[in-house]
User: What shape does this take?
Amino acid sequence: MTTLYTNHKAKEYRYIKLASTLESKIASGVYRAGEKLPSVRKLHKRTGLSITTVYQSLIELEKRGFVEARRKSGFYVKPRLTQILPSPTLKRHRPVAKKVSINAVAASIVEAMGDRRIMQLGGTVVAPQLLPHKELNRIVKTMTYKKLTDLMTLYENPTGNTDLRRQLARRCIDLLQGTGIDDIVITSGCIEAVSLCLQAVARPGDTILVESPTYPWFLQLIEDLKMLALELPTDPSSGIDIDSLKKTTRKHRVQAAILVPNFHNPLGFLMPDDKKKFIVSFMRKMKIPIIEDDIHGDLYFSGQRPATLKSFDRIGLVLYCNSFSKTVAPGLRIGWTIPGAFHDRVRQLKINTGIASPGITQHVVAEYLNGGSHERHLRNLRTILKNQVNNMALMVARYFPEGTRITAPKGGLMLWVEMGSGVDGLNVFHAAREQGIAILPGAMCSTTRRYNHCIRISCGSPVDEKIETAIKVLAEIVRNSSG
Amino acid sequence: MTTLYTNHKAKEYRYIKLASTLESKIASGVYRAGEKLPSVRKLHKRTGLSITTVYQSLIELEKRGFVEARRKSGFYVKPRLTQILPSPTLKRHRPVAKKVSINAVAASIVEAMGDRRIMQLGGTVVAPQLLPHKELNRIVKTMTYKKLTDLMTLYENPTGNTDLRRQLARRCIDLLQGTGIDDIVITSGCIEAVSLCLQAVARPGDTILVESPTYPWFLQLIEDLKMLALELPTDPSSGIDIDSLKKTTRKHRVQAAILVPNFHNPLGFLMPDDKKKFIVSFMRKMKIPIIEDDIHGDLYFSGQRPATLKSFDRIGLVLYCNSFSKTVAPGLRIGWTIPGAFHDRVRQLKINTGIASPGITQHVVAEYLNGGSHERHLRNLRTILKNQVNNMALMVARYFPEGTRITAPKGGLMLWVEMGSGVDGLNVFHAAREQGIAILPGAMCSTTRRYNHCIRISCGSPVDEKIETAIKVLAEIVRNSSG
Assistant: This one.
């Protein structure tokens, strides 16, 4: 009886022990999110434990939430969406409208983006191998002579290729009911969409409300258009602070807002639906147009496609912007906007600054969407990005010095890292560039010095040894900067 | 002897008579510029005249300057670059800086441009069959999988594809000595180039000098950027009036000028080199940057490639703009600028409003230029456009009411038609649209009412019966409007 008991105890220990070993290997990144654990047979051979024990330990791991079983395939490491490091927290500040002057730093960052020899952790770029290049190639190669000639030798419709707008209007059914072909304007990426919308709703000298921190490109647009940026305190887990919004719009004459409610860049938060609804109705009362950037909206890590601000808008005061640069092909430069009540003005501005976007690139995306494989591709891409963001966060947690805070994004491909308050993100940027690594310094995301100790890291590429080395180098730079 | 003399006389008359008959057929458009006359053998059969007499009459026609003999091919009708109708003349006026508001009319014109069922005499569009579509198709179809994938899935260099800039820098050797790869920024057509340059040199509220009349798009850009347009009296045969330039720049604070010295749109003039030189040196003294639109520079009808303002510029105060929309493929939207001293600012603005132009369209043009057939294509295109412009001018001369004046462009593809002062060009535009014909009303080319009795007609398509019918319809509309 004793023996039996002991045996039982020993057996229990054995499977728990193996589960814990595997867990620590997952925690330390030996097995990464999205990767397959060794098979039951392999573990049995390596550990000398019985098949049953091995199997029990894997079930235990699954219960603990570290792996998931896939039918006829094995056990896979799950991404840990729970917090790995503490989150950055909301810091309230008194919002002041400010002139913007970040263009100089921006130039050097974009330069780094174009350099193929540099480890790209700076730009919001998805690795080419994760994009549907096979399908896109097939479309280009099977175009007829007549079609290709037309697309090259004629001006495209200034509002955008009709087939492409039809495909977009179809895809809008769930989110933006009632969006028709003629409500859409095709642009050169999401940035041109935001730029045209901003020019449509505001004039030089006007004050534009943005999140704090915000996407650097918005600040550059505001700078170029001689407008003022008003940064609103923003909760890193749910978006702009409603109290501050109320107070600020009472105190300042705000002409428009640029918001990223879904998987914010750089913070990664998903604004709750209630808050979205409230903001749209509040801004309607205040008669302030909202430019909504939804570029990461399709890249959710769990649940379903989040709602847009636009879907709560009944009077066309939300100017919706999106693009295919993160999901299909950045090089094609295809973005789009549903500018609501400002449609005619946005269309005119599009015509005036370049007549129309190229026909061939629009046609390729229209055909791709028509092909029907986009939803499947998006499902794969979401899983892959979820794993990459998780693995990158684990590595930052492992290598960065104590006191580091990090966001737990619910979608997209960005991590926002808050370092010790003594660390200068710009110094980290320059030191990293010298070692062939590009990141985005937090200073770029604000007109204030509030995020100078932050950096943004992009998780668009599959995590491999090179990236791990880069994170180690970064951590070393940060450690030295703290000293 | 008498007989002989009579015979001689009769024979002389016969060849002169045939020559005159053919001349009147050319003048009345039965044989059009660029077309081949019937062969000597055919004329001999039709007229019953001897081969020698027919040949004599063709030589006579050649002497008179109506045809040219082409070796082993026959006699071809030459375009008549001499004046067919009287030219519009320079009218001096007191230049006043004005707000611009032509966007509303512009929208309906661009809409017409996109409508394939409409006879396109409105936009500056070259017919697709005149463009090198065969070569462009070949390039797209022979691209490797790797190349195409890279072009679609990666962001292109924000300043522009390096191969394309290299090709451009090579082609610049004669005109713009010393222009290197890094001096060029690739844009979405010439309009984006001008737009970026304008934003680089001036701010909202600034006064911009333009020719009068000018290209409508410039006025729209000035309107969008909340600047003021100052129209300078312009000689329809040589460009802006120097006296007015001197007086105006003394009286007004002018921030920049947009000039089209080569085959101006809409007037078609070629500014003499002396004048170009003077203007560049004068503006240098005044410290006023010149944005030079050279989009028609390669489309000269005789002599050699005209000089650019940029070629007289030693300090980078000329921002040179051009595109391939009139010579290679408008649908590819490839323009470029050499912004001189303002390079970094223009480059930054390009990045900020869309990151980069698509890679695939830039690559196609780079490969096309590399292919080496561009010069031959340009030679053909120049001859064809020269003939088209001539034939169109002849038809306007034939069908439009007395009192009509018309330009005699030395290049490009535009005719500027001044109708009786009682005719409203906007009414002509609307009446023509109803009958499926698009033209450009002169009112679009100015902030004043000075050109309300003018229209611009595009000669980008081969003249055929349909176009002749359209010109007849236009003439009828004009005739009715005069009454």
About this structure: The radius of gyration of chain B is 24 Å. Residues 1-7 of chain B have pLDDT under 50 and may be disordered. The domain at 136-370 of chain B is CATH 3.40.640.10 (Aspartate Aminotransferase; domain 2). Residues 40 and 398 of chain B are 28 Å apart (CA to CA).
